[in-house]
């Protein structure tokens, strides 16, 4: 009986690993049909006979993003919403621009790992492991350096130079998603109860109200 349960446990583990990424395509491509309203896990395929080069094309990553905002960074994401041909391919890319001392605040990608390459400037990057260790793994990157953020873990970047910085991130999903921690906790709609957040963060409720007013 014990061996039977062990076999089932191993099957569950291997199955979870096998399905821990976007589904693989069963054809050459599955260009997303933006006009189709059918709801599926992903997007419905366009008729292959109607596919053209522009379905696999995007122009604009050479343009700097506007970093005039509270955090001093701008992410220009290119996923399946920008390139329909990414549908079912399990990849996307983003350009991140950072003002001096700007940050890409702590966030997670629920559906993707990320590999980040610094094109210009110096970035302090890091991620935090899951409970109970909550270990911070961090490093300062220079031009040409590459760093990986595992799927689902909270991570961040900060420009630690006096000039602008630029990075390119590749992600292992056509739609990686993003959950910015501060926005999710203090900017949810409707608000999370101040009683809950005050106890979670061990602060006064007025402090919670102050944070919520900023989001």
UniProtKB/TrEMBL annotation:
GO MF term set: manganese ion binding
Positions contributing to oxalate binding: 104, 109, 114
Protein keywords: Apoplast, Disulfide bond, Glycoprotein, Manganese, Metal-binding, Secreted, Signal
SMART domains assigned: Cupin_1 (SM00835)
Intrachain disulfide bonds: 30-45
InterPro entries according to UniProt: Cupin_1, Germin, Germin_Mn-BS, RmlC-like_jellyroll, RmlC_Cupin_sf
Cellular compartments annotated: Secreted, Extracellular space, Apoplast
Signal peptide range in chain numbering: 1-20
Main subcellular location of this protein, as a coarse class: secreted
Residue ranges constituting the Cupin type-1 domain according to the UniProt record: 59-209
Function, as annotated: May play a role in plant defense. Probably has no oxalate oxidase activity even if the active site is conserved.
Protein name: Germin-like protein
Biological source species: Prunus dulcis
Taxonomic lineage: Eukaryota, Viridiplantae, Streptophyta, Embryophyta, Tracheophyta
């Amino acid at each position: 009986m014990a061996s039977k349960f062990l076999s089932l446990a191993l099957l569950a583990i291997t199955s979870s690993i096998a399905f821990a990424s976007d589904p693989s395509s069963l054809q050459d491509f599955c260009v997303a049909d933006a006009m189709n309203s059918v709801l599926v896990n992903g997007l419905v395929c366009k008729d292959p006979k109607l596919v053209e080069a522009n379905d696999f094309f995007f122009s604009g990553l050479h343009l700097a993003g506007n970093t005039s905002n509270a955090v001093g960074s701008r992410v220009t994401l290119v996923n399946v919403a920008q390139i329909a041909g990414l549908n079912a391919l399990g990849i996307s890319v983003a350009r991140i621009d950072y003002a001096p001392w700007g940050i890409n605040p702590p966030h997670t990608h629920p559906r993707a790992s990320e590999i980040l390459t610094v094109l210009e400037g110096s970035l302090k990057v890091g991620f935090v492991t899951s409970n109970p260790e909550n270990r911070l793994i961090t490093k300062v990157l220079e031009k040409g350096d590459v760093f990986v953020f595992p799927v689902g873990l909270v991570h961040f970047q900060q420009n630690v130079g006096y000039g602008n910085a630029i990075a390119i991130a590749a992600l292992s999903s056509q739609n990686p998603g993003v959950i910015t921690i501060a926005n999710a906790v203090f900017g949810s709609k409707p608000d999370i109860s101040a009683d809950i957040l005050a106890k979670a963060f061990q602060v006064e409720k007025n402090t919670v109200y102050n944070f919520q007013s900023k989001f």
